[in-house]
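Q: I'm writing up a methods section and want to include an example of the input and output format. Could you take the sequence below and give the corresponding predicted C-alpha cells, formatted cleanly so I can copy it straight into the document?
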Amino acid sequence: MNFSERFLYHIWDARHLQFQLQTVSGKKLEIISPGRWNTGSGPDFMNAKFQIDGKKILADIEIDLTTYNWKLHHHNENPEFNQVGLHVVYQHNTNLQHTIREDGAIIEIFQIKDFLDADIEKLRKQYDEFKLEAKFCEFFAGMQPQQVQQILTDLGKQRLERKIKRFASELQFADFEQVLYQGILEALGYSKNKLAMLKFAGDVNYKKIKQAYAAGMSKQQLIAIYLNCSGLLKHLPVSFSPNWQKQQQDIFQKQSFIKKKADYNWNLFRIRPHNHPAIRLMEFARVLYPHLQSSFFQDMLQIFSFPKQKFTITEFRKRLYRFFGNQNKIMEKYAIGKTRSDTILINIILPVVILYAQKHNYSDLEKTAREVYLNYKALPSNHLIRHMQNFMDAAQIKKMKKKAVFQQGMLKLYFDKCRQHKCIDCQKMKNELLK
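A: Here is the clean output for your methods example:
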C-alpha cells in the first residue's frame, strides 16, 4: 500500500482494525480509547487508553510508516516522546521487538498492517502528507561567541547522555560486544543504508562471527561471508572483476561456518564507491578480524588507557586511527577514513565506553572518555549544521567549528526545538542557560 502517515492516523482514530490484536512481541493488545489527535509537535495521539496482556495503560501513541522511522525522525533523541506507551507502525522493519525511548524505556510495537479491516484500501486516496513550513530563528542573535560556546557545550553534554541511555536500553537485548559491533556497522551504512546494516548486524552477529573464528575461520572467509550473506556480492562496484567475485562465491560455498543468506533493502542508487555497503563490510571485516582472537570491545577500550597525567588528545587520535587501520600511510584503497572513524567515535564508541565505565565503576575510564568528548575536533558539517549556521554570525560560526561537542549541541537544539518550531520554548531555554 502506498499512503501517508496521515492515513494511518485515520485508521487508528476510527479504529479500522480487527478485534483480536497483538504486539510484535506477541502480547495481547486491546484498544480502549485511541486518544486525542495531536496537531502540534510531539506524539501523534495523546492520552490513549489500552491494555497489554491485561495491564491497563494511559499513554501517548506515536504512529510511523516503519519502525525505523522512530530513529530516522530522531524521536529517540526527543524527550517529548517519553510518554509514548505504544509505537504503532504499518511495517515493522527492524530486528528488535521493542522501541527504545529517549529516557531508555522500552515500549511495545504494534504492526498495524496485520490487523486492518478488509475494505481499508478504499479510503487510501482521501489522505495526503503533512507539509511543514520553515521559520526564521533568532536564537543566536546578540550572543557573544563565548556564550555560544557555553550553551552548545551544555546541549552537547545532554545529547551525549541521551546516547548513553539509548545504548543502556540496547544492552537488555545484547552484550557490550554486540552493541558496539552493530553500532559501528549501522554508522557505516551512512544515511542510505543504516537500517539494512543494522539488520545485517543482527543476523550475522558478533557471537556467530566469534564462534566461526574459534572454529578456524580465516579473514578471507569472513569477507566472503559478509559479501554473500548480505546479498551484495553481485552488486559490487565495477572495479571488482568477475573473477574476483567468483573467488568470493567459491570461498563462501566451501566454508561451513555461516551459510544463512537474507534479503536486505540496500539503497545503491548514485552511491559513491567508498560509501558502498559492500566496501564498508569488507573493510570492517579487515578491522574486526585481528581482534577476534581476544575481544573486539576490550581491544577498543585499550585506546583509552593512559598512565596518570599522560593523556593527550593527539595521542588518543593516533590510537583511534591505528585501531581502524588509518595511519598516515593508508595501505588499502577503501580503508575506513579518519573522518568516518571520528564520526563513529563521537556517536557510537564514546557513549558505549562511558556506559561500560559507569556499570563497572571505572571512574578513570569514564573521565578519559568524557575528556575526549569535550575536546575532540569538529566533525565535517552536515546539512543540518549548515542550515543552523544561517542564523549565526561569522564569529559564532568560527567558535562552533572548533569542537565536535559544539556540533552535537547544535544538533540537539535542532531536534529538540527547531524541528518542532518551538521558538518560544527555545528562547526560554536560552535565557535559562545564559543565567
